[in-house]
Amino acid sequence: EFIGTIGRLYFLQNNHRKLALQKMTLFLGFVREHYHIPTKDLNETFVNQLVAKSEIPKPTVDKILLIYQNIKKASSISENTLIDFHHEMERFYKNCK
Questions:
Q1: pLDDT (tens digit per residue) in 30-56
Q2: How far is it, in rounded angstroms, from Cα 73 to Cα 4?
Q3: 67-82 residues labelled b (16+ CB within 10 A) or e (exposed)
Q4: What gap in Å lies between CA 27 and CA 85, rounded to an integer?
Q5: What distances in angstroms separate CA 14 from CA 1, 20, 41, 47, one per listed residue?
Q6: How far apart are alpha carbons 82 and 90 in whole angstroms?
Q7: Interatomic CA distance for residues 14 and 66, integer angstroms
């Protein structure tokens, strides 16, 4: 409920970047909790471990991380970027083992 409220607040303020960064923080927490993979370095080792444990195709994980890296570098992002990021994460959550 709290996360939903914060998400709506950021969305209504058109702070899509902050919302996307919050979504990534929650995603990395999920990865640490469910797969016991360190998330300090989002490198190839991280990707390979996540792919193996979650059984999610590597292109999906790579796309999540690519969008995230682009979001981190940007000062703001469009609603479409936020939606794409959300869809990739939802695909992960729906299909992960």
A1: 999 999 999 999 999 999 999 999 999
A2: 25
A3: bbeebeeeeebeeebb
A4: 11
A5: 20, 11, 29, 31
A6: 12
A7: 22
Q: Using CA atoms, how far apart are residues 16 and 79, in angstroms rounded to an integer?
A: 6
Residue 38: other Cβ atoms inside 10 A: 12
Rounded distance between C-alpha atoms, residue 11 and residue 6, angstroms: 9
Distance CA 3, CA 6 (A): 5
For residue 73, the one-letter residue type is: K
Q: Per-residue b/e over 3-14, b at no fewer than 16 CB within 10 Å? A: eeeebeebeeee
pLDDT in tens, 16-33: 898 899 899 999 999 999
Predicted structure pTM score? 0.85
Which ranges constitute the DSSP H helices of 13-78? 16-35, 44-54, 58-73
